[in-house]
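task queued by scheduler; priority normal; single chain, no ligands, no partner chains; default sampling; output format set to structure tokens
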Amino acid sequence: MVWRLVVLMCLLICDDLSRAQDYSDDAPPPPPREQENCDGIFVSYTFISREKEYPRLKNASAQSWAFKAMATVLNAGSSELKSWKIFIGFQHDEILVSAGGAVVMDGDDMPASVGNGTFLSGFPQSDLKTSIATAGDINQIEVRIPITGTQFGVKPPDVPMPKTISLANDGYKCPRPTLKKTSMSVCCTRNLKVKVKPKSTKFLPRQYGDLSFVYDIMQAYEGNYMAQVTIENNHPLGRLDHWNLTWEWTRGEFINSMRGAYTHKIDATDCIYGAAGQYYQSLDFSHVMNCQKNPIIGDLPSEKAKDEKVGYVPYCCRNGSLLPTIMDRTKSKAAFQLQVYKIPPDMNRTALYPPEKWKIVGVLNPDYKCGPPVRVDPTEYPDETGLLQVTSSAIASWQVSCNITRPKTKTSRCCVSYSAFYNDSVVPCNTCACGCDDEETDTDKCNPNIPQMLLPSEALLVPFANRTAKARAWARLKHIDIPNPMPCGDNCGVSINWHINSDYRTGWTARITLFNWEEINFEDWFVAVEMKKAFLGYENIYSFNGTVLKDINNTLFFQGLPGLNWLMGEVNGSDPKTDPRVPGKQQSVISFRKKLTPGIKIKQGDGFPTKLYFNGEECSLPIEFPTGDGTRNPPVKLVPLILLTLVTSMLITHHFH
């Protein structure tokens, strides 16, 4: 009987202990003291764990580690935070594999290299309300971002922490973060020196970008909506030719139809065998335009602008050309419309989400990095009835801002060669100026790490593959060593020669020649030349149209005259079997005066550009200038030569005496 009582008491005690244990597990840990004292936006980063990845290396600095971390953004203030964005200062060559509830702001796909730090913004929860407005609902005032990735070179027991973290929203200031062994936190508060303009709506104002997209919901129905995408080029030297746009649907949407643009692939396979096919069982998918998660969209040719089926969209159908406003303001904008079908649980007409991860590319154009879509004030349009002073608004609008960027590892798509009247050798485009592939950089074929060989001027008219014999012959004529293997080519689709044509007491002239080695034609081309010392002396250009851009780093803007604005593509020679291909070419002479540029030294390099752009793409410039002795080296010094002559003369005189 006694033992039964003992067993019963043990069971009761164990049950109480288990209940106590369950309760302690469910109870959240107390917030850190810094968070409790924060009257603003509390941002934190906590390192969780890591493990060694394959391959296993003896070199600790090269060993990769898979790590897990948690970033949090908490609105502990009294003002709602719109479109939150944070900066995490990674510093160990990290590769970001996933970030739940956030996207990389420059539009990079995962995995993304973030070794120099990265900006993250919220998706789908981009706004953080206040505790006051939500009765302390933690799900509406805080976002938690589970992070996984790879880092290099930090060996345990050291912890691979970021250099810093901060809130990146305008109008906030962040002190230096508090660093512990495995965590980092900072409380960012309103910057009282920054005057916040009162907002008439609940959405953010539109931001400036070199290129911007606006995604407008024009009509909304149960299960689908009509949208319009507007692209605007805001950069004075930015440009796109034959643009291709892509984005990512994140909620199972698909494009049913389009006007003003088209998708490169018309295929409903992903719908038929996916969630859309299960829901829309009676829909004829043979008429659906595109079901890809990442569709590629291109512009229609100009002859489709008034097509009843695919045209009649303002600013559509420009054959993919987006010009800077300096050239033609009406051609700096493009637009198209699409009908988007949704799938559960987003069937309600108010469940509206824009696509993410926007990217746009052109042919021989600048690279653009795009941020995430940001909800902005609805776009207003002239009313379709034609009544004056009457406008209609989009149901919802999002803006995507993009900026021109040039990563350090990127190579150009165009290059420049230098020549001058006082030197019969041409300094050609740099080796691998526009990149070299692995097969080409095989050291048995060519050397990508040595400078190009000097060339005679006529060699500029033939493709690089046909220049070898001319380069060798010129080197022998000029007594220049011939490397083995020879330098690799420049591999550029467009090359530009800048030639100093003359230099006299009151002025000087240059000649610019454009070579198109691509098979495509460039319509409405332009060249922008930044002249650091010679800009003020610009007088005229004779075969092109020239504009002075004083506000853009002393830049001269050149474009073709009406009727001469085509740079034709490369064509076959007179006899394709024996003659090399011939590039498209445009040429003009430019004159400069010296009155406003006293002390300018043309032969010392002052007459050459400091930067040159073709169709918005910054071209690779040579690292050397032509000199006065026919080589790329400085002229021979006269003092040693005179001394050698005197010594030789004395020896000869002594011998005969």
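post-processing summary
- The helical segments are 2-26, 33-36, 131-134, 138-141, 269-272, 275-279, 468-477, 638-656.
- The first strand starts at residue 41 and ends at 52.
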